[in-house]
Structure formats: structure tokens, C-alpha cells
Amino acid sequence: MIKKDIFVSVATTETRIAVLENDTLIEFHVDRPDQISLVGNIYKARVLNLMTGLKAAFVDIGMEKNGFLPLDEIPFKEFSEMFENEDIEIEEEFKTEGVKLKENQEIIIQITKDSYGVKGPRVTSYISIPGRYVVLLLNAKNIGVSRKIHHRHEREQLARLAREIRPPGMGLIIRTAAATARPEEIQREVQYLKSMWEKSLKLAETEPAPCLIYAEPSPLIKIVRDLFNQEVRNLYVDDETRYREIIDYLNNVSPRMRSRVKLYRDPEPLFFKFGIEEQLKTIFERKVWLPSGGYIVLDHTEAFLAIDVNTGKSSKERQAEKLALSTNLEAIREIARQLRLRDIGGLVVVDLIDMEKKENIDRVVREFKSLIRNDRARYKIGEVSEFGLFQFTRERSRTSLTYSLSEVCPVCKGRGRVISKMSVISDIERWFFNNARSIKNKIVELQVSPRIADFLTTRGSDILAKFSKDSNLILKIKPDYTMAEDDFKVSVV
Questions:
Q1: Do 26 and 122 lie in a common domain?
Q2: Rounded distance, CA 7 to CA 238, Å?
Q3: DSSP labels, 254-299
Q4: How far apart, in Å, are the Cα atoms of 328 and each of 196, 351, 394?
Q5: What does residue 356 show for φ and ψ, rounded to 5 degrees?
Q6: pLDDT of residue 2
Q7: pTM of the predicted model over 0.85
Q8: Does residue 372 share a domain with residue 250?
Q9: Confidence (pLDDT) at 84
Q10: Using CA atoms, how far apart are residues 483 and 477, in angstroms rounded to an integer?
């Protein structure tokens, strides 16, 4: 039986949210004022220009980057991608011919993906508002029920209820949490979501475009809404204000769950008490070790995430095929966890250890598919190529955790490597050669980074002697902690 708990640790600069399954960290979220996700927000926007070749339009939503609106979007696909990987069973569908737009037209849109790199946010013109038990589809008439509600009879009952309580002209998606809710709770939430949308429409009627007409709740409440279900034993919060915020939300949507929310008051920090801090150390690690002694290496490129699988110190199996299979299985389990933990999206290419038998390759792929069932992000799984490369994509709706919690290295400018000491010294030598006349017979001070200074004064004494002899000067080395590794400064004393 899976034991799941949620932990919320509040500090002045950020709120951290961790999800543990059987004491293993599987999801981690950080709420910072300067890094708020806009996914789910609804705007009254203005069409700027139509891109016929891309079959898309760029819309002004009042932000630095314009929204990207595909014109041939499929309504139900957009809805299901926005929330969770629930494998929705559709009762009824309808076709659309797409959205006919013209420049400078006002249109209501919703953000489905945050800005990423140079790309602006992706938006849709099919609007929906999620609740704890349902997703209200505002300009569609679909009825959908999550297949994660395993019993067919329950799904049929919920579908009948959805048809009864669906507001005219709207649709409903029944979420997994509805399986344990009372009909009146579901109906009350539908009316609550409908009233919120009516308020948004009134705002859209009075405010000029571009403007925000509906904002998703705080990341903490979204986590409670989407993850705090019957499978979760306890939700621990170490801040009374946030505790009250959660209780107030549950009072409106699920009073029965309030008893599982615990206010943590122990003097020992919450994340240390439950071993979360130790597990968080692997989030930024390039190399992640496996239990058998093998390891995986994760390298981010502009186009995709490359993951290399290695046997390392593993010696559990003597036969090459068995060793490859056991290491690949361990690796694929850790990869599934790391993708979810780091919230990595886009194309992923895994270089598996070569296996000869097709049944072993198929077993690894099946194992991966079973592991990602509980991941809320959607996947598209490819085949393992003849070169042992396993390719798949993971839905990206927001910036990955490692990207949002890090910044470009001021030394390597994001390349991931620092220029070599000899390359820097060669640059210095060329400078001295080109400026030999102006510094001849002078006292010269050379400012470099501490790493280069240490090298010059220890193993580079011959280089210093050559600099001094060639120009007949007295050379002083000054370490400067503000100096970049590939920079230097020469001044005459």
C-alpha cells in the first residue's frame, strides 16, 4: 500500500511543498513571489497578427511576451492537457472548424503553458475552470469521466450526475477526487465555478483589452485542490497563516478532509524532521547513483534532455545481458522519479545499456509506462532505436524546477564548462607581447581570478619569469574575487 503525505514549509522568501510516497520524494514545488505560474489564468486579449504559415495568432495579454494561439486547436485535447493525466473517458464529442480571427479583434483566452526561454506563453481560446471534483468547460459541451475511477459502475453514475448538473451550454469533466465525494458536494462546486465565471464575464465587459479576468489560486491551494485526496494520509504545514488558508479552502469544498491537515509546531524544521532536505540534494545533481552501483547522467541541451545510463560499480550480475537489463530497469525507475521531481518537460533521449533480446527491451519500456501512470504530466512514448536510444516526450506546462531555481553561470555563460587555465594564460601572454613597448621597464600589476593567480604563483613561475624578462619589468600578481575566470586586468603601478 502506498503511503502518501504532503509537507508545506513556509519561509519569508518562499513556500516549499513536498510530496512523499512511502517516504520517497516524488514531487517538489516552490512558490516564490517572482516566479508565479500563469497557467490557468484567463485574459481578455487583443489579436496582434495572424501567422498563416504557423496556423496561429499572436495575442496581446498585457505582458512582455505575447501569447501564442494555435488556430486549429482541438478543444478536448487542450482541456485534458491543462490539468492532470486522468485518461478521460469521453461520453460525447463535437467537431470544430477552428477559430476565425482578424487582427485587432478582442478575444478571451486562457494560458496553457508558461513562457519558456524566448517563447511566449501558449494560450487556448477554449476556456475551462478547474475545481477539486470537476473541470467546468465554458464553451464546450463535453462530458468526461476520469478512467482513474476504476469501477465502471461508478463512472457511469458520475456521468449521469454530470448530465444532470451541467449548466446549459457548458461541459463537465469529472475528476478522480469526485469518486469519494457526495453528489451534493459536486453540484455545489459546479455552481461555485459557474458563479466565478459569471463574475469574470462582467469584468470582461467593463475592462478594455488586454486585462486579466480570472486568476488561478495560489500554488499552495492548487496543490491542495489537485493532490490532496483520499490517498493522502496527512498534510503538514509549519505556518499558521497558511494552515488557516488551507482550512478555509477545505471548508468550502471538502470539510471532511480538514482533519488530515496538521499544524506542525516542533522546534526541529519540518523538512529535516521527515528527511526531505537530504533528498532535495539530488535535484541539481548531474550524476544520480542507483542502488546497485550504476548511475545516470542528466545533461540539458537547448533541444532535449539527454540521459546516459551506466553500470558504474555494479557487479551484481556476471552475465552482460542480465547486468544490462537490471541496470536499465533501475535506471528507468529513477528517471521516471527525477522527471517528475524536477518537473522536466520536452523531448527526452535515454541512452540505455545495449541489450540483445527484444523481450528485455520491451520489458524496460513496459516498466517505464507503468511508472508514469501517476505522473500528472502527459507523455508520448517512442520506441527504442537500433542504437539503444529510448525517446519520449513529457508535457511541459511550466518552467522546470532546476531551471527556475538556478541561473546562468556568470563564468561559463551557461555552457557548463569553465575555460582552461592555459587558455587564459595564453590570452595574457598575447596581451604582454602586443603591449611590450608601453610597459617596458615598468612595475606592472596583473589582476586575475584567484584560480589563475594560484596557478601562476605555484606551477606557473616559469611563465612569470618569461613575462618579466621579455619586457624588463617587475610583475605583481593580484588575486581579485570579482574577476571572471576568463578575464584579467593589467595596470602600471
A1: no
A2: 8
A3: -GGGGGGEEE---SS-HHHHTTHHHHHGGGG-SEEE-TTS-EEEEE
A4: 49, 10, 19
A5: -85, -40
A6: 76
A7: no
A8: no
A9: 44
A10: 13
